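Could you join me in thinking about how sequence relates to backbone shape in a protein? To get us started, please write out a protein record for me. Would you write everything just below, so we can both look at the same thing?
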Amino acid sequence: MSGLTVRPVQPADHRVWNTHVEISNNGTLFHDLDFLSYHSADRFDFRHLVVERDGLIEAVVPGAVRPDGVFVSPAGASVGGPAVRRSLAAEQALALVEALQNYARAQHWGGLEFALPPPVYHHSPNQLVEFALTLKGFSLTNRALSFLLPLRRGATDHYQVLFAQSRRSYVRANRRKGVTTREAGAEAIDAFLELFQETYDRLGTSATHTPSEIVDLLRRLPHRVRLWLAWLGETAIAGSLVFVLNPNVCCTFYICDRLSHRDHHGVTVLLADLLDILAQRDFRYLDLGPSASSTHFNRGVVYFKESLGAQAFCRDSWRWNA
């Protein structure tokens, strides 16, 4: 039944890999080789995999081997696992997972770990891969709860339907006070990094990306990685890095604000404007990122996202020991 072969990616595969991701059912920016190549060569032991049948790609799996010998997907990204073709059938999903397990055994790896995007990311939502993982002996090791804002194509004023009453009032009042929003690329990096640095200094935590990595991503992928900033006059009061993950979903990274201007609710105004622009571009969801997991529940952040009308979906992690 299978007829599948698994092999490491080769330099000549770069274009066809990215094309497959674009037309796959569940591929994202985090599967894209141009995105993954922003990491320095020594950061991960990348072993990206191509799964083929009769020379045609069935799936691609970005990932790396950890020091403990386990292949993990993603490595250096938020979600990964197999990006599969749209016409994948149930029995073919089982064969795909079995082929990856056989390859892992042949490489003497300690196992496989996949963190999968929620099904709402998919071109055609389904959970064939999750079912195949379960049937082939994988265990669910973690659930991260992501909050996504739904978009209605062609609709305007999404915030009037989604946001809680108090947040709708913040949008209207602060637009009257002169808060505006703008989309930008690398040319606005200084304004964003000022907000970024202040926010993370205030939180006392480290961000996933360094400022230089953010600059690199903006320049490397100018149509997929964008800045959105809220302004009061010439002062940037809030901002976010926004990734275009695929034709269905965008996601926010680093929702930042200026403490001295928090009474102008720049983040809320920014999101209200962003929702309408993304809907006009035919996106279905804006992912605000995870705020809870199997081991942690951030009550304040969850409450904020729910007050915006966000819906919760699981980003699941799976493990199989060879």
User: Anything to note?
Assistant: Residues 90-106 form the longest helix (17 residues). The domain at 4-144+317-321 is CATH 3.40.630.30 (Aminopeptidase).
